[in-house]
Amino acid sequence: MWKLATMLSLAVTPVHSFILDGEIIRQNGQGQFVKLQTVEPFDVGFDTFDDDNLYGFDEDQNITLTEPIRVDIGGNNGLIPQGTVVASHYVFFDSLSGIQYGYVYFDAPILGIAAFRNTMASTDFLANTTVNYISAELRGLEEGDQVWVDSVDPNKLWVYWAGSSPGDYIRVFTEQSPSALTG
């Protein structure tokens, strides 16, 4: 009987859309891709890391949107529609200087990207982590920074960022994982 109960509890445990991996292909430094865990609180924002790493972490997962959200890249005419199930992820580079070219790989296709201060602020309700987002007015990409979804693999996000203070920050929205339950 306990085996059946255990199997049933495993069957209803949500599987989330996650950042799986990433890599820096080329940069002026010694960094690598680092996936942060949001179990313990930490700050992210204006110069809290100051190194050559490309970072990412998962925010709220598999949430049904009760209203459409605006994105700067992707979406349907810049919107992800109401009723869409999304997972939210944060990707950033908080370097003192240098250029970074690399990618972040997700387990579900990318729907859209909030890449500027206003779109990031309007989607903060999808954060729901132990992370303290500081200097929100400085988030987003700077002139000359580029981010795009791979034309062959919609789960891969490419970044070409010139790091300087305060850093580059984006929020990535992916589809629900194929095996996930809605949160």
Task: Furnish the topology, listing elements before pairings.
Elements: H1 2-11, E1 19-27, E2 33-35, E3 42-44, E4 54-58, E5 63-64, E6 69-70, E7 73-74, E8 79-80, E9 85-93, E10 99-106, E11 110-114, H2 117-122, E12 131-133, E13 146-149, E14 156-162, E15 168-175
What are the key terms here?
183 residues; mainly beta; 7-stranded mixed sheet; 4-stranded antiparallel sheet; 2 helices; 15 strands; 39% strand; disordered N terminus
**Gyration radius over CA:** 17 Å
Uncertain runs = 1-15
Mean pLDDT: 84
Q: Calculate the terminal CA-CA distance, rounded to whole Å.
A: 28 Å
Tally of domains:
1
Number of strands: 15
Largest sheet: 7 strands, mixed
Q: Helical residue percent? A: under 10%
Q: SSE order in H/E notation?
A: HEEEEEEEEEEEHEEEE
Oligomeric composition of the shown chains:
single chain
What does this structure look like?
- With 183 residues, the chain is mainly beta.
- The protein is built from 2 helices and 15 strands.
- It is globular and about 40 Å long.
- Mean pLDDT is 84; it is low at 1-15.
Provide a short characterization of the protein structure.
The chain has 183 residues and is mainly beta. The chain has helices at residues 2-11, 117-122; strands at 19-27, 33-35, 42-44, 54-58, 63-64, 69-70, 73-74, 79-80, 85-93, 99-106, 110-114, 131-133, 146-149, 156-162, 168-175.
